[in-house]
Design a protein that fits this description.
Elements: H1 24-100, H2 104-108, H3 119-233, H4 239-248, H5 259-268, E1 280-281, E2 285-286, H6 288-298, H7 307-312, E3 315-317, E4 327-330, E5 337-343, E6 346-349, E7 358-361, E8 369-374
Antiparallel strand pairs: 1-2, 3-8, 4-5, 4-8, 5-6, 6-7
Helix pairs in contact: 1-3, 5-6
Length: 375
């Protein structure tokens, strides 16, 4: 008997509820934990589906084997019936020929020829014929009984194999449905995570912009107050001395020919391009200094691909005189990072691995900010 495949039904695991605890930081942490757990569940469900698929294939193979045995058994039963039926017909015809035929067939058989046509001889032949026929019929009945029993057993196995096949298929469908629910839940949690991160970034950018605007306003007010103090203290007749002082301490020159605006436009054309370490082109991606060097290159100004060298090659600019295109440097000598001022308290940068080129609030209140420069 072919063994029946046992199918393990996948239990329907509950999809993690999307709880919403109070507090953005707490919610983000909770969502990330939920996403990790859902990913583990999806991986586990996928492994179960693969195992169930193997069981389904085994059930299909077993049912096909049983069906083949049933067909073979039915063929044997038909062949046995045909053989015995043929033997029965041949023996019956021989007996009839022996009793009825007065022609050559009757005289040619030594049992019915000459003096051997006695009643005893005829009975002896009849006994032989009937004995052979009875034996054949007994064999037929025995063969039919055996084959019928085998056929009944095979039909039972076939029904069990069909049930196993159906159960395996149902289990796969249940697991696939569970996996779809888990995937949908994961997508929802990831969407919530993205929304929370975007909100945090927006809030941080707004706070940084407010701080930058306040610092910029303070610097402008201080510069204006200092200018008024110098103007009041200077003698009215020393106009030439004032002109000399202005020549000695000139403001940083604006970017010639609107190059700053052109550099900003070039940089903004790369919004959304991935950060790539060492990158310096739209096709390869950008790192921080690669973006500023490429953008200023599009404006006709060549800069080295290193933030510290860019700071060394730029004219220092006070915060109160920032213009679009000016570079903002971070770390000792500008060695850690560079961004570009775009105006309105906003800057553009290629921030770090995993992020993209983006616009963000002006960061000049952090301890790592060391100054601004104009190429």
């Amino acid at each position: 008997m072919v063994p029946v495949v046992t199918v393990v039904i996948v239990s329907s695991g509950a999809v993690i509820p999307l709880a919403r605890p109070a507090g953005a930081a707490t919610t983000l942490t909770s969502d990330k934990a939920q996403a990790a757990k859902l990913e583990q569940q999806i991986s586990s469900t996928g492994q179960q589906i693969d195992a169930l698929d193997q069981k389904f294939e085994a059930a299909q193979a077993q049912k096909a084997s049983v069906d083949q045995q049933i067909t073979s058994t039915q063929s044997k039963i038909s062949q046995t019936k045909k053989t015995v039926s043929g033997d029965k017909a041949a023996l019956s015809q021989a007996a009839l020929n022996a009793y009825m035929d007065t022609g050559s067939s009757g005289t040619s058989d030594p049992i019915f020829s000459g003096s051997q046509t006695s009643t005893a001889d005829a009975r002896e032949y009849d006994d032989v014929a009937e004995g052979n026929l009875s034996t054949a019929v007994d064999k037929l009945n025995t063969a039919q009984n055996v084959l019928s029993a085998q056929q009944a057993s095979l039909h039972q196995q076939d029904a069990q194999a069909a049930q196993a096949e159906s159960s395996a298929k149902s289990s796969i469908q249940s697991a696939q449905s569970l996996e779809a629910q888990q995937t949908q839940a994961l997508s929802q949690v990831k969407g919530q995570i993205a929304t929370l991160i975007a909100q945090q970034q927006k809030a941080a950018a707004a706070a940084a912009e407010a701080a930058a605007q306040a610092k910029l306003a303070a610097a402008q007010a201080a510069a204006q107050a200092q200018a008024q103090t110098h103007s009041a203290a200077a003698p009215a007749a020393s106009s030439s001395h004032s002109q000399a002082a202005q020549v000695a301490d000139p403001p940083p020159p604006p970017s010639a020919g609107g190059a700053g605006a052109a550099a900003v436009a070039a940089a903004e054309s790369q919004l959304g391009v991935p950060y790539v370490w060492g990158g310096e082109s739209p096709g390869a991606g950008f790192d921080c200094s690669g973006l500023t060097a490429w953008a200023w290159g599009r404006a006709g100004v060549s800069l080295p691909h290193y933030s510290g060298a860019q700071m060394a090659d730029s004219t220092p600019v006070p915060i109160s005189d920032l213009q679009p295109g000016d570079l903002l440097f971070y770390g000792p000598g500008g060695s850690e990072h560079v961004a570009m001022y775009v105006g309105g308290g906003t800057m553009i940068e290629a921030p770090y691995t995993g992020a993209v080129v983006w616009l963000t609030g002006l960061r000049i209140s952090t301890g790592s900010f060391v100054g601004a420069g104009r190429p």
